[in-house]
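Let us work through a complete example step by step.
Step 1: write down the sequence.
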Amino acid sequence: MEEVPARERILTAAEELFAETGFEATPTSRIAERAGVPKGLVHYYFKRKPDLLVALVERLPDERIDMSGVVVDGDVAASLRALLAELDRRREESLMLSNLLYREADTHHTVRDALQDRFRELVGLIRKVIMAAGSAVQCKADVDSAAELLALAVSYQHSVARHATEPELGRVTMERELAFISDALSLGAGAP
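Step 2: predict the structure and record it as tokens.
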């Protein structure tokens, strides 16, 4: 069995401890202890404690999607549904990490900046799916605004997922939002 590299053990320990006790209440000595490494090694890989948070953002699931797996030619709504289902599946794999990072974004600008970069990538991904699925949409609707609105809805849903007492309600709400955006696109809403 291959040993997990020290850097990965440090990140795993930091993720667990930040989730359990919060960023501010977790000393690097506890991270080192849980990772089974000397404290100096934590500082070797991560000069400052907030650098651990930035590295944790990079551990979120990759949002690059194989377009052939989600795009339904001529059906924007079905394509967006498939995309959101894949994004939700990936979020479920990293629920603890997502919750931790959204919480820490309030007080750590580096995390907030990294999450904003991911948001812009999500907008671009949604836009690509819309464009690939509906050639009629391309000329007559404001695809950029539609992509941003749906990305905002997805980001909000993911940021509050840890508080969801009725996850099914969130899926119903997202379905309504998706249908609204898809209908608006097909009607040419926001045409330039």
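Step 3: interpret the result. The chain has a mean pLDDT of 85.
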